[in-house]
Amino acid sequence: MSILRILVVDDDSEMRQILTQFLQQSGTIALPAAGEADIRKHMASGRIDLILLDVMLGDESGIEICARLREEDDVPIIMVSALSTDQQRMDGYAVGADDYIAKPFNTQLLLARIKAVMARTRRTASLAHRRRVSRFSFAGWTYDGRTDEVTSPQGYQVTLSRREIALLQTLLAHPHIPLTREEIAAALDNSGGDADASGRAIDVLVGRLRSKIEDNPKAPQLIKTQRGMGYIFATDVIQSDA
Questions:
Q1: What pLDDT, in 10s, does the model give residues 1-16?
Q2: Single pTM value for the model
């Protein structure tokens, strides 16, 4: 239902930047991380769908980080390394990595491997995330992901259509991140709906959602227009499992 969020973990700032930019241009949300502390920070602050984890991270070991992450989370992990012997690959798989790709690699091959891993794990990861996060709070509003109930700051419930709920879910998953109409349309299409997801249809859908959650839909403060791009959910979102 949402755009893929990939954590790129590499202690080489140039490689980290190259991979992050490539993945962003390929339609994902790519977040850079230099080591385990950055990984923990990103995972604590929002959903991560997949981690590209370099094996050699200066003083840190990607293999050891993978083992610790796997004890706590089932997020898909692809190990990335210049070391490509069978033993190194087996070490990665032994600690729970989902795949292993050797440097240097073709970027299109990397995309194919990411898609393959996500195809195997998407349903499990999605269900696990929905179990962990069931409530979203933003600007006094709340959205209950278990019941699809939306409650205003004044305490009354607002009825949203299925497509409006899907749009709200997409925006809640990406606060403060500009989304193109194409990215939003792709997320809505993945929600299983069959309604029109063209650029104009997205504008109309955003207008309908604004009319229900904005104090002044003509001067929106939550769903703001990004000129020449699309939209941004311009408020903090707090996720919880209660």
A1: 468 899 999 988 998 9
A2: 0.52
3-state secondary structure the chain: CCCCEEEEECCCHHHHHHHHHHHHHCCCEEEEECCHHHHHHHHHHCCCCEEEEECEECCEEHHHHHHHHHHHCCCCEEEEECCCCHHHHHHHHHCCCCEEEECCCCHHHHHHHHHHHHHHHHHHHHHHHHHHCCEEEECCEEEECCCCEEECCCCCEECCCHHHHHHHHHHHHCCCCCEEHHHHHHHHHHCCCCCCCCHHHHHHHHHHHHHHHCCCCCCCCCEEEECCCEEEECCCCEEECC
Q: Are residues 30 and 63 in the same domain?
A: yes
Q: In CATH, what number is assigned to the domain containing residue 183? A: 1.10.10.10
- pLDDT higher than threshold 70 for residue 101: yes
Q: Which of the pair, 195 or 208, is modelled with greater confidence?
A: 208
Looking at the fold, whether 140 and 73 belong to one and the same domain comes out as no
Residue numbers of the domain that contains 127: 5-132
159 and 102 belong to one structural domain: no
The reply to whether 14 and 115 lie within a common domain is yes
Among the three residues 132, 166, 186, which one is the final residue of a domain in this structure? 132
